[in-house]
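Following up on my earlier thread - several people asked me to post the actual chain instead of describing it. Fair enough. Here it is, all 315 residues.
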Amino acid sequence: MNHPDIYEFRLDVDESERIDKLLSNYFPEYSRSTIQRWISNQDVLIDGNPCSQKDKISSSCNISIKITSQPTVDLIPEDIDINIIDESDDYIIVNKKSGMVTHIAPGNYTGTLQNALYFKYPELGLVPRTGIIHRLDKNTSGILVICRNLSSHNILSKQLQDRKFIKHYHSLVTRIIDKPITIEEPIARHVINRKKMAVRSNGRYALSKIRPLSVYKNASHIEIELITGRTHQIRVHLSFIKHPVIGDDVYGFKNSIFNKYKNILNRIDKSFAQYLHAYSLSFIDPKTKKIKTYTAPYPKEYRILLEELKINENI
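Reply from S.P.:
Thanks for posting it. Predicted structure:
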């Protein structure tokens, strides 16, 4: 590159950690030495100030990185089928399948959406995080926007940080929800199981809005508007109000509800784990400045269970 590119984003921090380690976790496609070189060259600013590798971050902050030359991406391109809903010069709209990890992480460098995107769109190697600005949990299906250049990356990341994205999820949950519910409960790491999140008084502010779509005897089909975007937010909030996502045994679902409905289980792919789907996404197009709204069709397994719930009122 003949001139530096500036990459800006907000780094959300759950607990105190060194900046070099935090950035290595955020940018697993770049080597640790590359990230340490950025810091040593004072190309990394935290809330506008230079930092050192040993600096610890204990709260969310704004990060600015000046990239004067394109580093080598430590990412394996893989020819994996992905569902592209739409694409423009600035972004790609993907319907991620359940069971696929969004991006690589330490110990998990293959088989992800990020690997697949890098194969299909090699130019994404020039964009931090291969254009990924938000993520879905492994077993959550649905819509994601991928940025194709640094300009759209910065613009859409800023919209995301300013809560300009409108995100609606659909889910099949246990028990009856027959009226709108607003859940405004803070979320932090679970005290015992550090891989889980939990509602905790010292957590970060989190807001989810729920409305029922359909109600069955012992289950509900709901829509969730995600106002904030905390880790596992929907799953934690639904578990907190005793309506866990069907299939989400991490956050309280009990599989016994399906034991006497083997005809349903036999029709559903065993790898399909939970019934939470990112259904729609709205944002402002970086070029036209008009609102774009996309929706992602349900996975086959989701449609099967939804139909069985409609037919069989005993579930």
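The radius of gyration is 20 Å. That should answer part of your original question.
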